[in-house]
Design goal:
elongated, two-stranded antiparallel sheet, mainly beta, about 70 residues, 4 strands, about 25% strand
Amino acid sequence: MKSIDLAIDLFVPGEYELRILYDKNNNGVWDPGDFFGKHLQPEIVVPIERKISIKAAWKNEFEIVL
């Protein structure tokens, strides 16, 4: 299993829903692809099953298993 650490100091306290985007065509852009022609969906969106609660003045750590 691969582990990734992510630190972002931009969120205000509150509850958040997260989604992971997989860039299957590796172009670094969220684009529509060619769904109606070749039926290619370039980005797959996977929602995280639980909400994340961010608290002020805390080091908020969460483990997300994909």
